[in-house]
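Our preliminary data section would be incomplete without showing what the modeling component actually yields. Below, a chain of 343 amino acids is followed by its predicted structure, encoded as C-alpha coordinates that our downstream tools consume directly.
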Amino acid sequence: MKTAPSTIADVARAAGVGVATVDRVINRRAQVRPATALRVMQAAEALGYRGAGLIRKRLDEGGGKHRLGFLLQKSGSEFFQLMAQALQQAGREAGGVHSVQVEYMDDLTPRRVVAQLRAMAGSVNALALVATEHPVICAAVEELAAEGYPVFSLVSDLSATGLAGHAGVDNVKVGRSAAWAIAHLGRRPAKVAVMVGSHRYACQEECETSFRTYFQQHELEFDIDLLDTLISLEDRHLAEETIHELLHRHPDLTGFYLAGGGIEGVLDGLRALGPEYDFVTVCHDLTPLTRAALADGHVAMVISHPRDAIAGGLVAAMCDALDSGTGPRRCVVDPLLFTPENI
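Predicted structure:
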Protein backbone atom coordinates (compact mmCIF):
# COMPACT_ATOMS: atom_id res chain seq x y z
CA MET A 1 0.00 0.00 0.00
CA LYS A 2 1.32 3.44 -0.95
CA THR A 3 2.07 5.84 1.92
CA ALA A 4 0.24 9.16 1.70
CA PRO A 5 2.57 12.14 1.18
CA SER A 6 3.41 14.18 4.26
CA THR A 7 1.45 17.36 4.82
CA ILE A 8 2.17 20.68 6.51
CA ALA A 9 0.24 19.38 9.51
CA ASP A 10 2.58 16.37 9.72
CA VAL A 11 5.63 18.65 9.61
CA ALA A 12 4.15 20.92 12.27
CA ARG A 13 3.42 17.95 14.54
CA ALA A 14 6.92 16.50 14.12
CA ALA A 15 8.56 19.90 14.76
CA GLY A 16 6.37 20.65 17.77
CA VAL A 17 4.99 23.87 16.30
CA GLY A 18 1.73 25.10 14.85
CA VAL A 19 0.73 24.83 11.20
CA ALA A 20 0.88 28.64 10.99
CA THR A 21 4.57 28.58 11.96
CA VAL A 22 5.39 26.11 9.17
CA ASP A 23 3.45 28.32 6.76
CA ARG A 24 5.47 31.35 7.87
CA VAL A 25 8.72 29.50 7.21
CA ILE A 26 7.65 28.36 3.74
CA ASN A 27 5.96 31.54 2.54
CA ARG A 28 7.94 34.11 4.56
CA ARG A 29 4.73 35.74 5.75
CA ALA A 30 6.48 36.78 8.97
CA GLN A 31 9.73 36.18 10.80
CA VAL A 32 10.33 32.92 12.67
CA ARG A 33 13.29 32.54 14.99
CA PRO A 34 16.16 30.57 13.42
CA ALA A 35 16.09 27.74 16.00
CA THR A 36 12.39 27.12 15.26
CA ALA A 37 12.85 27.34 11.49
CA LEU A 38 15.72 24.85 11.70
CA ARG A 39 13.48 22.44 13.63
CA VAL A 40 10.82 22.77 10.92
CA MET A 41 13.37 22.05 8.18
CA GLN A 42 14.73 19.00 9.97
CA ALA A 43 11.22 17.62 10.51
CA ALA A 44 10.33 18.24 6.84
CA GLU A 45 13.44 16.43 5.61
CA ALA A 46 12.95 13.52 8.00
CA LEU A 47 9.36 13.07 6.75
CA GLY A 48 10.30 13.45 3.12
CA TYR A 49 7.96 16.41 2.80
CA ARG A 50 7.84 17.64 -0.79
CA GLY A 51 8.51 21.25 0.27
CA ALA A 52 11.63 20.43 2.32
CA GLY A 53 13.90 21.87 -0.37
CA LEU A 54 11.99 25.15 -0.35
CA ILE A 55 12.21 25.34 3.45
CA ARG A 56 15.98 24.85 3.28
CA LYS A 57 16.16 27.60 0.64
CA ARG A 58 14.22 29.96 2.90
CA LEU A 59 16.65 29.32 5.74
CA ASP A 60 19.64 29.94 3.47
CA GLU A 61 18.09 33.20 2.25
CA GLY A 62 17.60 34.37 5.82
CA GLY A 63 21.35 34.36 6.41
CA GLY A 64 20.87 34.09 10.17
CA LYS A 65 20.02 37.78 10.39
CA HIS A 66 17.94 38.83 13.37
CA ARG A 67 15.15 41.38 13.34
CA LEU A 68 14.74 42.75 16.84
CA GLY A 69 11.74 44.71 18.11
CA PHE A 70 11.46 46.98 21.15
CA LEU A 71 8.27 48.41 22.65
CA LEU A 72 9.05 51.40 24.86
CA GLN A 73 6.70 53.74 26.70
CA LYS A 74 5.74 57.40 26.37
CA SER A 75 7.15 58.83 23.15
CA GLY A 76 7.64 62.17 24.92
CA SER A 77 9.85 60.69 27.66
CA GLU A 78 13.50 61.75 27.50
CA PHE A 79 14.50 58.51 29.21
CA PHE A 80 12.86 56.30 26.61
CA GLN A 81 14.14 58.43 23.74
CA LEU A 82 17.68 57.94 25.05
CA MET A 83 17.05 54.23 25.60
CA ALA A 84 15.86 53.93 21.99
CA GLN A 85 19.11 55.50 20.78
CA ALA A 86 21.12 53.06 22.91
CA LEU A 87 19.19 50.07 21.54
CA GLN A 88 19.64 51.19 17.95
CA GLN A 89 23.37 51.69 18.52
CA ALA A 90 23.68 48.27 20.18
CA GLY A 91 21.94 46.71 17.18
CA ARG A 92 24.36 48.38 14.77
CA GLU A 93 27.34 47.12 16.74
CA ALA A 94 26.09 43.54 17.22
CA GLY A 95 26.88 40.83 14.72
CA GLY A 96 23.95 39.10 13.06
CA VAL A 97 21.39 41.88 13.56
CA HIS A 98 19.51 42.77 10.40
CA SER A 99 17.32 45.51 11.86
CA VAL A 100 16.15 47.17 15.07
CA GLN A 101 12.53 48.32 15.23
CA VAL A 102 11.58 50.67 18.08
CA GLU A 103 8.01 51.74 18.81
CA TYR A 104 6.47 53.73 21.64
CA MET A 105 3.30 53.01 23.60
CA ASP A 106 1.45 56.16 24.66
CA ASP A 107 -1.71 54.20 25.49
CA LEU A 108 -0.58 51.93 28.32
CA THR A 109 -3.83 50.03 28.89
CA PRO A 110 -2.97 46.31 28.98
CA ARG A 111 -5.09 45.37 25.96
CA ARG A 112 -3.52 48.12 23.87
CA VAL A 113 -0.05 47.00 24.95
CA VAL A 114 -0.91 43.45 23.87
CA ALA A 115 -2.25 44.71 20.53
CA GLN A 116 1.02 46.53 19.81
CA LEU A 117 3.05 43.55 20.99
CA ARG A 118 1.24 41.19 18.62
CA ALA A 119 1.43 43.67 15.73
CA MET A 120 5.19 43.97 16.16
CA ALA A 121 5.57 40.18 16.29
CA GLY A 122 4.55 40.11 12.63
CA SER A 123 7.69 41.93 11.52
CA VAL A 124 10.42 40.83 13.96
CA ASN A 125 11.68 37.52 15.35
CA ALA A 126 12.46 38.58 18.93
CA LEU A 127 10.87 41.27 21.08
CA ALA A 128 11.46 43.24 24.28
CA LEU A 129 9.00 45.51 26.04
CA VAL A 130 8.56 47.79 29.04
CA ALA A 131 5.25 46.93 30.67
CA THR A 132 3.34 46.62 33.91
CA GLU A 133 2.75 43.29 35.61
CA HIS A 134 -0.73 42.37 34.37
CA PRO A 135 -2.39 38.99 33.62
CA VAL A 136 -3.38 40.04 30.08
CA ILE A 137 0.18 41.08 29.22
CA CYS A 138 1.74 37.99 30.79
CA ALA A 139 -0.72 35.76 28.90
CA ALA A 140 0.31 37.39 25.61
CA VAL A 141 3.98 36.79 26.41
CA GLU A 142 3.20 33.11 27.09
CA GLU A 143 1.31 32.79 23.80
CA LEU A 144 4.07 34.42 21.75
CA ALA A 145 6.67 32.20 23.41
CA ALA A 146 4.62 29.14 22.46
CA GLU A 147 4.56 30.40 18.87
CA GLY A 148 8.37 30.61 18.82
CA TYR A 149 8.95 34.29 19.59
CA PRO A 150 11.43 35.06 22.40
CA VAL A 151 10.01 37.93 24.47
CA PHE A 152 12.17 39.87 26.95
CA SER A 153 11.21 42.35 29.64
CA LEU A 154 13.13 45.62 29.72
CA VAL A 155 13.58 47.91 32.76
CA SER A 156 10.67 46.32 34.67
CA ASP A 157 10.54 42.53 35.01
CA LEU A 158 7.47 40.35 34.33
CA SER A 159 6.38 37.11 35.97
CA ALA A 160 5.38 35.31 32.75
CA THR A 161 7.03 31.86 32.82
CA GLY A 162 7.56 31.95 29.06
CA LEU A 163 9.69 35.08 29.31
CA ALA A 164 12.98 34.61 27.45
CA GLY A 165 14.86 36.97 29.77
CA HIS A 166 15.15 40.40 31.36
CA ALA A 167 17.44 43.41 31.09
CA GLY A 168 17.54 46.18 33.65
CA VAL A 169 19.22 47.58 36.72
CA ASP A 170 19.62 46.09 40.21
CA ASN A 171 16.59 47.75 41.83
CA VAL A 172 17.57 46.67 45.34
CA LYS A 173 20.74 48.75 45.04
CA VAL A 174 18.74 51.62 43.54
CA GLY A 175 16.27 51.80 46.43
CA ARG A 176 18.92 51.40 49.11
CA SER A 177 21.15 54.02 47.50
CA ALA A 178 18.26 56.50 47.53
CA ALA A 179 17.65 55.79 51.23
CA TRP A 180 21.36 56.18 52.05
CA ALA A 181 21.47 59.56 50.32
CA ILE A 182 18.45 60.90 52.19
CA ALA A 183 19.66 59.51 55.53
CA HIS A 184 23.07 61.12 55.17
CA LEU A 185 22.26 64.35 53.35
CA GLY A 186 18.95 65.37 54.91
CA ARG A 187 18.12 67.24 58.11
CA ARG A 188 17.52 65.36 61.35
CA PRO A 189 15.15 64.14 62.69
CA ALA A 190 13.86 62.95 59.33
CA LYS A 191 10.44 62.96 57.72
CA VAL A 192 10.62 61.14 54.39
CA ALA A 193 8.20 60.56 51.49
CA VAL A 194 8.42 58.22 48.51
CA MET A 195 6.41 58.39 45.28
CA VAL A 196 5.97 55.65 42.66
CA GLY A 197 4.18 55.72 39.33
CA SER A 198 2.39 52.42 39.91
CA HIS A 199 3.02 49.31 41.98
CA ARG A 200 2.25 47.27 38.85
CA TYR A 201 5.77 48.12 37.69
CA ALA A 202 7.86 45.46 39.40
CA CYS A 203 10.94 47.68 39.26
CA GLN A 204 9.25 50.51 41.16
CA GLU A 205 7.79 48.19 43.77
CA GLU A 206 11.24 46.69 44.34
CA CYS A 207 12.85 50.14 44.61
CA GLU A 208 10.27 51.28 47.16
CA THR A 209 10.57 48.09 49.22
CA SER A 210 14.37 48.31 49.28
CA PHE A 211 14.16 52.01 50.20
CA ARG A 212 11.97 51.28 53.22
CA THR A 213 13.99 48.21 54.19
CA TYR A 214 17.17 50.30 54.46
CA PHE A 215 15.64 52.44 57.21
CA GLN A 216 14.26 49.37 58.99
CA GLN A 217 17.62 47.58 59.00
CA HIS A 218 19.84 50.45 60.09
CA GLU A 219 19.87 51.78 63.62
CA LEU A 220 20.06 55.47 62.86
CA GLU A 221 21.02 58.00 65.51
CA PHE A 222 17.89 60.06 64.85
CA ASP A 223 14.15 59.51 64.56
CA ILE A 224 12.68 58.94 61.12
CA ASP A 225 9.07 59.23 60.02
CA LEU A 226 8.40 57.30 56.78
CA LEU A 227 5.16 58.58 55.25
CA ASP A 228 2.69 56.52 53.24
CA THR A 229 3.67 55.94 49.61
CA LEU A 230 2.35 58.44 47.04
CA ILE A 231 1.20 57.49 43.52
CA SER A 232 1.78 59.59 40.38
CA LEU A 233 0.35 57.20 37.75
CA GLU A 234 3.35 58.31 35.64
CA ASP A 235 1.50 61.61 35.04
CA ARG A 236 3.37 64.92 35.38
CA HIS A 237 0.27 66.93 36.34
CA LEU A 238 -0.77 64.50 39.06
CA ALA A 239 2.83 64.41 40.31
CA GLU A 240 2.88 68.23 40.56
CA GLU A 241 -0.43 68.32 42.43
CA THR A 242 0.76 65.57 44.76
CA ILE A 243 4.02 67.32 45.65
CA HIS A 244 2.09 70.54 46.45
CA GLU A 245 -0.33 68.61 48.67
CA LEU A 246 2.54 66.75 50.34
CA LEU A 247 4.35 69.95 51.31
CA HIS A 248 1.13 71.60 52.44
CA ARG A 249 0.51 68.74 54.86
CA HIS A 250 4.18 68.20 55.81
CA PRO A 251 6.10 71.49 55.65
CA ASP A 252 8.81 69.84 57.78
CA LEU A 253 9.62 67.23 55.09
CA THR A 254 13.35 66.42 54.98
CA GLY A 255 13.59 63.84 52.17
CA PHE A 256 11.71 62.93 49.00
CA TYR A 257 12.37 59.92 46.75
CA LEU A 258 10.70 59.68 43.35
CA ALA A 259 10.91 55.99 42.39
CA GLY A 260 8.77 56.27 39.25
CA GLY A 261 7.62 58.64 36.53
CA GLY A 262 6.47 62.22 36.96
CA ILE A 263 9.78 64.02 37.49
CA GLU A 264 8.66 66.82 35.16
CA GLY A 265 5.70 67.61 37.41
CA VAL A 266 7.74 67.27 40.62
CA LEU A 267 10.30 69.76 39.32
CA ASP A 268 7.56 72.15 38.19
CA GLY A 269 6.17 72.01 41.71
CA LEU A 270 9.53 72.55 43.38
CA ARG A 271 10.48 75.46 41.15
CA ALA A 272 7.13 77.12 41.84
CA LEU A 273 7.94 77.01 45.57
CA GLY A 274 11.18 78.89 45.09
CA PRO A 275 13.69 78.76 47.97
CA GLU A 276 11.02 78.04 50.58
CA TYR A 277 11.63 74.32 50.82
CA ASP A 278 14.69 72.63 52.30
CA PHE A 279 14.72 68.88 51.74
CA VAL A 280 16.75 66.31 49.81
CA THR A 281 15.26 65.02 46.56
CA VAL A 282 16.43 61.82 44.86
CA CYS A 283 15.08 60.65 41.50
CA HIS A 284 15.88 58.29 38.64
CA ASP A 285 17.76 58.55 35.34
CA LEU A 286 20.11 61.18 34.04
CA THR A 287 18.48 63.10 31.20
CA PRO A 288 18.87 66.73 30.11
CA LEU A 289 16.02 67.58 32.51
CA THR A 290 17.45 65.85 35.59
CA ARG A 291 20.98 67.03 34.75
CA ALA A 292 19.69 70.61 34.89
CA ALA A 293 17.89 69.84 38.16
CA LEU A 294 21.15 68.60 39.68
CA ALA A 295 22.98 71.70 38.47
CA ASP A 296 20.43 74.15 39.92
CA GLY A 297 20.09 72.32 43.24
CA HIS A 298 16.53 71.02 42.95
CA VAL A 299 17.78 67.41 43.02
CA ALA A 300 20.59 66.08 45.23
CA MET A 301 21.15 62.70 43.53
CA VAL A 302 20.07 60.95 40.35
CA ILE A 303 20.24 57.14 40.24
CA SER A 304 20.46 56.11 36.62
CA HIS A 305 20.15 53.09 34.34
CA PRO A 306 23.44 52.49 32.44
CA ARG A 307 21.59 52.59 29.12
CA ASP A 308 24.46 51.47 26.89
CA ALA A 309 25.28 48.46 29.08
CA ILE A 310 21.63 47.42 29.33
CA ALA A 311 21.02 47.84 25.60
CA GLY A 312 24.16 45.92 24.65
CA GLY A 313 23.38 43.09 27.06
CA LEU A 314 19.78 42.86 25.90
CA VAL A 315 20.62 42.77 22.19
CA ALA A 316 23.25 40.08 22.84
CA ALA A 317 20.77 38.03 24.89
CA MET A 318 18.09 38.30 22.20
CA CYS A 319 20.50 37.16 19.48
CA ASP A 320 21.67 34.29 21.68
CA ALA A 321 18.07 33.21 22.29
CA LEU A 322 17.41 33.17 18.55
CA ASP A 323 20.60 31.24 17.81
CA SER A 324 20.45 28.64 20.57
CA GLY A 325 16.82 28.59 21.67
CA THR A 326 17.73 28.09 25.34
CA GLY A 327 17.07 30.40 28.26
CA PRO A 328 16.07 32.37 30.15
CA ARG A 329 18.77 35.06 30.09
CA ARG A 330 19.18 37.96 32.51
CA CYS A 331 21.23 41.13 32.11
CA VAL A 332 21.07 42.99 35.44
CA VAL A 333 23.62 45.77 35.95
CA ASP A 334 24.54 48.14 38.78
CA PRO A 335 23.05 51.64 38.77
CA LEU A 336 25.03 54.81 38.12
CA LEU A 337 24.98 57.54 40.78
CA PHE A 338 25.10 61.22 39.83
CA THR A 339 25.42 64.29 42.10
CA PRO A 340 25.93 67.97 41.26
CA GLU A 341 29.68 67.36 41.47
CA ASN A 342 30.04 64.61 38.84
CA ILE A 343 27.66 65.59 36.04
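The two ends are 80 Å apart (CA to CA). The chain has a mean pLDDT of 91. Preliminary results of this kind motivate Aim 1 of the renewal.
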